[in-house]
Amino acid sequence: MKRGVAGLNEALIGQPGSRAELETPALLLDADRFEASLDRLAQLARLSGMGLRPHAKSHKCAAIAVRQMAAGALGIACAKPGELLALFEAGLTKLMLTAPVSSRLKIDRLTAAAARGLELIVVVDRLELVAAFGASARAAGTHVAVLIDCDTGLGRTGVTTTEDAVSLGRAISAEAGLVYAGVQAYAGKVQHVFDHQERRAANDLANARLTPILVGLRAAGLAPAIVSGGGTGSHLLDFEDGILTEVQAGSYVLMDEGYRPVDFHGTGEPVFDFAMLVVVSVIGHSANGEAIVDGGSKSFAVDGPPPRVYRDGVEIGTIAWAGDEFGRVKTYDGIAPPPAGARLECTVPHCDPTANLHDFIHVVRGERLEAIWPIEARGLSD
Amino acid sequence: MKRGVAGLNEALIGQPGSRAELETPALLLDADRFEASLDRLAQLARLSGMGLRPHAKSHKCAAIAVRQMAAGALGIACAKPGELLALFEAGLTKLMLTAPVSSRLKIDRLTAAAARGLELIVVVDRLELVAAFGASARAAGTHVAVLIDCDTGLGRTGVTTTEDAVSLGRAISAEAGLVYAGVQAYAGKVQHVFDHQERRAANDLANARLTPILVGLRAAGLAPAIVSGGGTGSHLLDFEDGILTEVQAGSYVLMDEGYRPVDFHGTGEPVFDFAMLVVVSVIGHSANGEAIVDGGSKSFAVDGPPPRVYRDGVEIGTIAWAGDEFGRVKTYDGIAPPPAGARLECTVPHCDPTANLHDFIHVVRGERLEAIWPIEARGLSD
Asked: Which of A170, A283, A339, B184 has the maximal Cβ count within 10 Å?
């Protein structure tokens, strides 16, 4: 039997009306919304002639990654070696590690997977890491593709100067076991700028930092085949600008309250609907009649705006937290608190750490539970 | 092999110096501090003549619960049926469910466990729930002990009037399959009041709401054998007042930055040291030289004050979040950023949801990794 609430819900798969009968708290993927978002971004990328390398840090789920590949993705991006190796064990073979590491044991696990068929791309931001990946790849009898990690304003990892980028590019090219593949430049600070024009200005600033590095690399004979970056927030700008060769969008297939205010296309209209939801149950009522539900900070990552709450498809209010295991439904004016036992579907404050709280995601289509997918890389932020 | 980072660290158990070599991010339990806190609260309870029923919502770990039982606990409190059943499967047999539920399937799982040897106590706050537990217990051929859930100011679940409490007490007593056992009154709002006198005033207010209910129950021939409540924040007040018969403290064995400012004994001195830590590694540096570590909101629950960071036992700064997988070390004045590969031990903003992020807890004593314990109820907030 599956672990936790998924084990209680397994018998409901395929049953009519099962969506309304789920034991809770359960993480949901609305299949119709998910597929619409999957197709929409894939189509925009095709029209622009650019690539997509969806980031699995958002969902950590092999079944979702497989569908992203089927929709034309170049490969899947991963934040950590543990997440990447879990997806490799689940059958994904084109995987990129988007952050530097400092553990030789983890590097050796990655190159060992490359020797077993993983098409691995990694990023480096310092010469020691080039040497470490090279030595490990040689010991494993394999080759690893390497990008230069560039910082265009995020202030996290990556080099900021053309000189450092060229120096790393030469070191990668000279290191047996490594293949120089280009550049990563993730403009993380751009993604959640709500206003379209302000976001364009922020992305232009990131590009203004990246462009001289790209020019310098080309002049040094290190023309990057891959320029990877961008995300859900900046995808349209990145497709228009054509400076990147591929976009690492993650949240688009799930969506959350933190991203929802972003005016993605400058039209004021939502582009991606809430495909990720958490269904909770009313377990009782407070003394003043508010419905108390069985989901708190152990079922929702709470680092974002409060969830909106739906009953039978109608938005009835929002959730205020009432402890780590409980929430308090704040119904809108004129809406009665739902009774004990009622199932309520809620959007999530922040999708990435919410997916990380659940072992399984319940795939629902219309009024039916269609499947339960494991979240293989849940908890593997190592 | 154990899942995730614990699998990478298994070979280090018992090795000299292994604490400094852990692969990361890894959840730690400092065994000496844990045992000191375990013993200290157990001793205070003994001196007061009151009971302890430690709350497993904080740690979700059977090995910790077993040690709490060995230190004299009456039983273990659990927030959710999934958490409770996971601890029962792991060998704990005296378990209390501290919140109402609304799922007949979950109720049936609980009574089925009672039929297999679980000494179960549950709480109810409405007549339908009395009937549901009674019917389920009878169908399972077992008996369940039941407490009346009273709201003394938390505003979550529970009755607020003597009339409702007496009505529930009579219904429980009359229901075949149920045994009336007393009252639960959890004063959740009291726990995090920092100042000792203000906390005493808040606890007095909760007691002033509880006392007439207890008097009314006794007058109705429903004298409660159990009056369960309290927590880490109010433990000393509860031991002094003697109104409760037992305290449901949870965080005391782990401790976090959210609880640390609470002046538990009115002495200005810490009572419980930070037994729970997360060890992270420096994976690189930002352009301005800050150390970037491999722990973010997927390794730390971030709903609390920022972690303090220790290197080789010396506090060197705090963490600012740099994405869901990363942190940024803000070193104190005059302290150099640690180099790539350095292991840093961090306190946690909030212990309960942090434990819920990890599959295993690494037990360290001095400079050695002593054991790796599974967190059996991780993710089981159903």
From this structure: B184
